[in-house]
Design goal:
2 copies of one chain form a homodimer. With about 300 residues, chain A is of the alpha/beta class. Chain A has a domain at about 230-290. Chain A is built from 10 helices and 15 strands.
Chain lengths: ~300, ~300
């Protein structure tokens, strides 16, 4: 089978843990141990989130005032390098030496008329007191929203339309390469209006599950797995009638609503992939990955 | 022809310029304009330096004290993402849409018994006053040397032995892909002693010209071009007998010594490639790239 596995950014730098390199590497190692058995008998493509990592780079950039902080597209590219490196190295250490690996920088096209640009919702970077947030908003044109008692920058989260490097990913898979790509949902880019149609980075963050679903579709993957902290998707989460959904279809899910911030995009991405391809998509915990691939714990 | 072009890290962030994203992008654009005509009629592999970029990330990391600064291998991986992204996007904007691009994360093996580890010489990161340098040296085991009146960390610059992702680079070239790889000389890695032979990052910096020469040799490249600020390599630099070397051979160069920090590694890398392959290597300015490739301004 050709399998796309999406790792959560929070699985690599967990909330509350110190955000240093050793902790991140230890978490990557745990993920690699779950991925290694899959890589031995399937074609494997790995994507990953980058929320905490972009957050850290934004904090570091803001702390060094001598140089203006880098924009989100560049920070995203940096995290594709950082996280991709750790995954490639740790997974490589668990597999035979001759298994080829490639971590590919991934640019993704988004549309200027995406509704996400009208209503930015994704928190990024440091938290500020109101006056400081107002000052930065006036200076840089950033939009801030309340995050608890403090203020934090919000950016749009547009739908991914096209993965530019999809052909190299395919060619490498055909050679038996384990490919790491589409990190952080890909680097958001857009064609600037005008005759020359120049591609440029955008101040936005693409949902990595939506991007992974697009990736899986474009690669004709047999299975899309989105890994998360939860052991299952639950209907009626938090209510007395709460129950795990073990197996379902896009049609059956259409009547159920999920939280926008957490499980919603995953369920939506799974439905998009399943509806477009007729192939299964699964949402589950890292510890269940091998059972999911074996079809024993499918969403 | 299959051509490996190595861009200097200083060509992308010049000494004295503000180190922000706009300036770096403007410099990448200038490089892309020189590379585009070559890409149209040759197989092109682009490598690049990352000195100023790693320096900036190290400064930003040191400024944000809440999280321990990331090690050099991870910073190197981040710069491969950052710089590779800008090159891929800017060069892509100058070429037909259907030209495939791939920016590959590149890990390079170095040897534990490399003499570079006994005598670290490469300056990285912020400058410190002596007491602060002594404190950090005691805390982290870093080695500091005097850089003018201040103190700065030095790290080893070992010789690159193996490029792990060389097969993916070859496969992508065979499909007509423009490949960006081996950024910053590659991420320095080493096999940890012990039965398991785990690969791990190393606190070191690999010379990007040595790595580019290894890359060109492994790819059976027809030409290696190392771009720099100088218009030529000079014999007797700074003396009344100073003269540009227009064309030469490793044997003829053996009797001439070049400065260790600047031109020496480039000349050495060129000689290694030429001696091993019988193919030409050139050192020159970005503005002369097209004449170099046409054979009119060859080293």
């Amino acid at each position: 089978m050709r399998i796309v596995v999406a790792l959560g950014g929070n699985a690599l730098l967990k909330r509350g843990e110190p955000m240093n390199a050793q902790v991140q590497r230890a978490n990557v190692r745990i993920a690699a141990q779950a991925l290694a058995p899959i890589a031995k008998s399937h074609q494997l493509v790995i994507s990953h989130g980058n929320g905490p990592q972009v957050g850290l780079l934004a904090l570091q950039g803001a702390a060094y005032e001598a140089v203006e902080a880098y924009p989100l597209d560049v920070l995203g590219a940096e995290t594709e390098g950082m996280i991709g490196y750790m995954i490639e190295q740790e997974l490589g250490n668990l597999l035979p030496f001759d298994v080829p690996f490639a971590t590919l920088l991934t640019m993704v096209e988004v549309s200027a008329d995406d509704p996400g640009f009208k209503n930015p919702t994704k928190f990024v970077g440091p938290i500020y007191e109101k006056p400081e947030a107002d000052r930065i908003a006036a200076e840089k044109g950033w939009i801030f929203k309340a995050d608890g008692a403090k203020w934090r920058r919000v950016v749009p989260s547009p739908i991914p339309k096209r993965i530019f490097e999809i052909r190299p990913v395919k060619w490498l898979l055909e050679q038996g390469t384990i490919v790491i790509c589409a990190g952080g949902g890909g680097i958001p880019t857009m064609y600037e209006p005008g005759a020359e149609r120049k591609l440029a980075g955008v101040e936005a963050v693409i949902d990595k599950d939506y991007c992974s679903a697009l990736l899986a579709r474009e690669l004709d993957a047999d299975l899309l797995v989105m890994l998360t902290d939860a052991d299952a998707v639950y209907a009626d989460w938090g209510k007395p009638t709460q129950r795990p959904i073990r197996s379902t279809s896009p049609d059956a899910l259409a009547g159920i609503s999920f939280a926008a911030g957490s499980m919603g995009p995953k369920v939506d991405a799974a439905c998009r992939f399943a509806a477009a391809t007729g192939k299964p998509a699964a949402i589950g915990a890292l510890a269940d990955l091998n059972r999911i691939v074996a079809g024993e714990a499918e969403m």
